[in-house]
Amino acid sequence: MVIQKTLVVIKPDAVKRRLVGQIVTRFEEKGFQLLELRLYLFSKETAEAFYDVHRERDFFRELVSFISSGKTVACILEGNDAVNVVRIMIGQTRSYEASPGTIRGDFGLGLTDNIIHASDTHESFIKESNVIFGSS
Ligand code: CMP
């Protein structure tokens, strides 16, 4: 087991629905350490940089528009195998297919509005956290 860091972004749908406390609590109860937490409003430019890997996808415009539609909460979490464990905890991308017990499975039904994003690799964590927290 390797101690890793990962990034989660609680999306505008979940912030508007006042789910932030419940979601952060799940990560704390699991045993992750919260290294950073920031209320963050994406601009169109920072949203495009954050989701750069999806630039050519047909849902890119919708994604950028949604993630910048309201405040998000970004957290850097640290713990054993964080990238993988957090991805398991958030569940499938399509919330309507996500298993009960996962964050998307318990709180959402949407696809673009799917409650939460988590980095899928260490490289994504570095790129994505640099957009929100800078490289320092
Ligand atoms: P997220 O984990 O933030 O990563 C990319 C996001 O694109 C994804 O969650 C969804 O919110 C969004 N998205 C919208 N349409 C699709 C799609 N057809 N396939 C995958 N992701 C999509």
Description:
42% of the residues lie in helices and 21% in strands. It has helices spanning 12-16, 20-30, 44-50, 60-67, 82-90, 103-107, 122-133; strands at residues 3-10, 33-40, 72-80, 116-118. The protein contains 7 helices and 4 strands. It has a single domain, classed as Nucleoside diphosphate kinase-like domain (Alpha-Beta Plaits, 2-Layer Sandwich), CATH 3.30.70. The protein binds adenosine-3',5'-cyclic-monophosphate. Residues 54, 59, 63, 93, 111-112, 114, 117 line the site of adenosine-3',5'-cyclic-monophosphate.
Fourth-tier CATH superfamily name: Nucleoside diphosphate kinase-like domain
Global outline: globular
Question: Structural class, please?
Answer: alpha+beta
Please write the CATH class name.
Alpha Beta
Count of DSSP-assigned helices: 7
- What portion of the residues fall into strands of 2 or more residues? 15-25%
> Could you tell me the number of beta strands?
4
Instruction: Determine Rg (CA atoms, Å).
Output: 14 Å
Q: What integer is the average pLDDT?
A: 97
